[in-house]
Fold this sequence. Notes:
single chain; alpha+beta; 5-stranded antiparallel sheet; 6 helices
Amino acid sequence: MRRWFALAGFVCFGLLASMYSPRAAAVTPQQAYQSCMNYRNSLPPNNEGACSVAGPQNFSGVSKFYYQLSWVDKRTIPPTQHPADPDKRFAFDGAPPSNPCTQLPSARIYNSGKLTQGTSICGRATDSISGGSVQCALTFTPISAPTQNQYSGGWETYGTLAPSGNLCAGSEGDPWKDGSGGALNPAPPVPTLPAADVAAPPKVCGGGSCYDTASDKYCATSGGQQVCVAGATARSSAGGCVSSGDATICAGSPNAPAPPPPPASPITDPPTQIKSQDNTTQADKVTGTLQNVSTTVYAQPSAPVESGQQAGDKGPAPTDPNEPEKGSASGGQDCNTPPICSGDAPTCMVVSQVWLDRCTVKDDKSDKNGNGQPDWTEVQPGDGDQYATGETSAGEVMSSDVVDGSKIDQTSWAGNTCPTLPTVMVFGKPWTMDQGYFCEWLAMLRPIFLLIAGFIAIKITASGGKS
Length: 467
């Protein structure tokens, strides 16, 4: 009986002791990291290591994450990579700290250079545990297609720079890398990090339309109303057209399609209703392959059409309203490309009429390229009769005579007397030049004239002088 009382008392004492004994304090991630770093610093010299989070693993029946050291012994050649020490695992309570490479801010940037999907650059983040800097990869995603500025020749790309969650093998400010980790050539400029958000990048404009980089659309303005073709449609081979009011814009790659007939569009005679044609050199967002996007704007003759270029956009310099408009003409190389003319109205009328006369199909006649041939350009039977000639011998149109010295006029030999100078009136009074000086001057020049004339005569005589 005493034994039972002793056992019961021991159990009760143990329970009371466990109730009043202090509990072990929870280990924070910071404490576990510091313990791991202390162990790292205790290694022999010339050793390098990193404490990283691993787990979870069972510790005393509880699943926990822990910091663990992996290190390199630099005393060996080559340096020896050591695995993590299983006996040096520093567990902590709670969930592991967040990845610092997911904490960087995202931003829309408008960067010089041709940047495609997957292009990355290094950014700097702060580790919440160690307080140190961590280099993280920022990945670029294009919003619009990389576009070449036709006026400067440079490339610009608009897109989003966002954290990838991965470490970056480099330091902040390193050159851009492609999707495979290789350096871009030529290297685009590195943006200032953290990047400032660009909500409204400039448009890239031509003579009659603009590429809106913010919305990835090809647009023109008619009567204050913007009409646009979506970027994905415009960069396809089929292309597409969109109409608004009296205007229609068509875009495609490499050539823009023709507008649909009414009522799908207000365009009744496309060749004569073209207001502008622009070509934009761009690149595929993913592969970087170059492609040309052609944009044509059509409108009724009285409809006002503009590109929509505003201050700050990239395009042609604005014209001075005080200067006369300079004329220009393009196109018309074949019957599928009507001419575009601006400026002088009479000249534009002549250009258009010549193209219509050359390319208007009459009597359903066309060449192999589909180009029309007017009747007046065709050769009809008998057209050449009026220009026919009979047979003519060479003797009827040519003769040959030998020229000798007898044909040369040998009289006087440049004259034997000095000509008399006339009297001229100067300010109402007669004036006569000294005849003696004049004759002496001619006498000095006479041998030179005779020499030159003799040389020419000898050359004619020596050539046989056929007439």
